Amino acid sequence: MATNPGPANGLVRLMREELVEISHRAYQRGLVVGVSGNNSVRIPGTDAVLIKATGVNQGDMDTADTVLLDLDGNVLEAGREPSKEIRWHLAIYRQNPGVGGVVHVHPPYATAWAVANRTPPLVHTAARGVLRKIGLVELAPSGSQELADLVAGAFSDRDLRVALMREHGIIAIGPDLRTAYYRAEYLEDTAKVALLAAQVQALGPDRGVSLAGERAAAEGGG
Ligand SMILES: [Zn+2]
C-alpha cells in the first residue's frame, strides 16, 4: 500500500455502531460483568481498528466509548484511552489480515473450564461445525507483551477460531465482528452443555430425582 488515506468517516461511524451493538448483546447475555472484556473491529479494507475505551461497561457503552487506532497501536483521534488489552488484539489483526473482529469476554461456563485449565469437549454438532477446536492460552499479566505473544502464538494456527485464556476468559475471532460474537456464544454454550451432560451422566440408577408419585406407586399405594 503506497499511501493510506485513512478510513472514511461514514464507514468508521457504522463500525462504531456495530461494536456498540455487539458489546451490548454480550453484556445482556451475561457473557461479561463490570468493566471487563473488550471487543474490537477492523475498519474493512484498512489497517485501522476500533476497540472499547478502558474502564467502560460493555452494557453501558456508546459510540463515544470506542477508540480508533492503527495496527501499531497509535491512537488516531484525541480523547479516549483504549482498553489495556489492545496489545494482543492488535497482534491478532497484524498476523492475520483475514480477521475482521475480535470478541473478548468472561462467560462463566467457559471461564470455569479455563480456571480448571481444561478445554471442554465439543459436545454437540453445532459447536463441532462452528468451532472445530478450542485453544488454551497460558496465564500472563493483563496488558503484558508476554500475554500478547502467547495469544499471537495460539492464533498463528489459522484454523483456530476460539480460545480459552487460563484463569481469565475467552477470545473469539472472525472475518467480521458478528461472526466472532456468534463463535463466542457457541463456545460458552458447549462449555455449559458439556458440564450439564457430565452431571446427567453421573446420576445414579434412580436418575438422581425422587418423585412423590413414583414412590407411592412403588410402595403399592396410589
Ligand atoms: Zn479479560
UniProtKB/TrEMBL annotation:
InterPro entries for this protein: Aldolase_class_II_sugar_metab, Aldolase_II/adducin_N, Aldolase_II/adducin_N_sf
Keyword terms: Lyase, Metal-binding
Metal-binding found in the keyword field: yes
Ranges where the Class II aldolase/adducin N-terminal domain occurs: 17-195
GO cellular component assignments: cytosol
Cross-referenced Pfam families: Aldolase_II
Molecular function terms, GO-annotated: aldehyde-lyase activity; metal ion binding
Superkingdom field: Bacteria
Biological processes annotated in GO: pentose catabolic process
Name of protein: Class II aldolase/adducin family protein
